[in-house]
Specification:
The chain is α+β, with helices and mostly antiparallel strands and 232 residues long. It is built from 6 helices and 8 strands; from the N terminus they run αααββββαββαββα. Helix 5 runs antiparallel to helix 6.
Amino acid sequence: KDGEKSDDKIDKSIRGISTFINILIWTIGLIFVIDNIGFNISAVVTGLGIGGVAVALASQTIFRDLFNYFVIFFDQPFKIGDFIVIDDKMGTIEKIGIKTTRIKSLGGEEMILSNTDLTNGRVHNYKKMDKRRVVLNIGVVYRTTPRQVDAIPGIIREIIAETDGVEFDRAHFKEFGDSGLVFEAVYYVLGPDYNNFMDKQHQINLQLLKKFNKLNIQFAYPSRTLYLERSQ
């Protein structure tokens, strides 16, 4: 089925190119026919004057988008069905046209972007992603004992390692923060699916919360301690 879908997408792109080529051939043929009838094509073009210049300027954008359509077709930075992010816009490619590309956003609406905007922008293609990197920062209160501090990286490692579809990288006591002791862990969620990515984070965070509560390790939160000294 995937092969059939891929062939169908290629056929649609080829039909788009064929349509443009047919229009170009018919236009050239029509010019030759008019010229053979006896009309002076050069005089007609010259007689267009300012109108011709205006049409030429207006068509620059069209031809630019058309050129970038060929860039997308041959270079294939993305294909139909790919999830992409460009600037502050994100969604799934639904159709690549001669002038514009249609994207189905996460909100459900359809976005229509010119091919020029897509090729000139920085496109992040998540379809080709095989795993997602997660940096997890955890803060605990300063009254946490040294023994508990020493055990926390191992606790994080164990919970992440026991989660299916997740690859553990590292866990360390990172720094002394303004409001608590900061730990940093890094792991990878295997696969490009965003819902699965969030499910794994939810699962790991929930297990950490349960484990910390069981061991009486308190999470830090923004706070300030004021010390008053009584003068003699």
